Amino acid sequence: MHSTTISEGGFDSIEDTIEAFSMYYSMNTATMSLYAEGVSGIGNGEFIVVLDSPSRENEGDLIIAASAITTEKMAFMIRHTSGLICAPLPTSRADALDLPYMVEPSASTDVHGTAYTVSIDSSDPSTTTGISSHDRALTCRTLADLKARSASFRRPGHVFPLRARDGGIRSRKGHTEAAVEFCRLARMGEVGVICELVDDGGEPSVQMNGHGPVAPRAERVDSGMLRTEGCLAFGKKWGLKVCTIEALVEYVERTEGISPHLNGKA
After folding, report:
1. Is 196 a known active-site residue?
2. Exposure of 261 in the CB half-sphere (CA atoms within 13 A)
3. pLDDT in the model for residue 240
4. 140 is an active site residue
């Protein structure tokens, strides 16, 4: 679904972003069967681009619900990001699937306190090495499957689950919590898939010697992370919604209140 409602600063509204992120189903009254409204481009379980604060990571992440990730979408994600595919999920879900911290919080030296668990692959017989687009998409969808159990995964693997902090985006303003929050708001389960958008730069300039052009070097120059303008351009190119974590926090606080509810208590 291409951007139609752009808020001040060039970003999409949270309402529009949730709509694009979700996957709606309606009842076909003629056949009494469910069909996806997403075939028309609305509510198709799409990627969204979410930026955090310039004073934090100052990065944009490509985010999608784990239940919506396909082999083709995973291939797109790997192509345009750092390729380190992470899967945010609530701590309760991580506990249920026996996914302990990679490094205990008390021992972690991660600057932003990102709560990595042990890495995983799906244990489905169709999984080969675990690194392909098919295998990683399957691992993420399995994480979102409520029937999945600890034995549904091999450890270690090629997907990195992240434990979202209880209280969501109002407790920690990170991409981990933003992904789980969007899943919750869009009723797309509770597991997301995220990865940082990158600028892969360009090829080095052609070098010459006395015999003519020298074979190009196997390098990329001027590479880095996509920042605000790059993320907005990326969203425009691919018809993806682009928003900020700050706007998501404002939306959740405006619609649900300032204090997050933890285990039924404020």
Report:
1. yes
2. 6
3. 95
4. no
Mean of pLDDT values over 194-206 = 89
Q: Which parts of the chain are beta strand (E)?
A: 25-28, 33-36, 48-51, 60-65, 86-90, 120-122, 153-164, 192-196, 198-199, 208-209, 212-213, 224-225, 241-244
3-class DSSP assignment, residue 59: coil
Catalytic residue among 12, 19, 177, 196: 196
Checking if the pLDDT of 24 tops 70, the result is no
Catalytic: which of 16, 19, 46, 121? 121
- Global pTM reads 0.86
Residue written as token pair 């898939």: 193
**CA atoms of 261 and 181, how far apart (whole Å):** 13
Is 200 one of the catalytic residues? no
Residue type for 104, please? Answer: E
Catalytic residue among 46, 52, 135, 175: 175
What pLDDT was estimated at residue 9?
67
Active-site residue (options: 52, 86, 177, 190): 86
124 belongs to the catalytic site: no
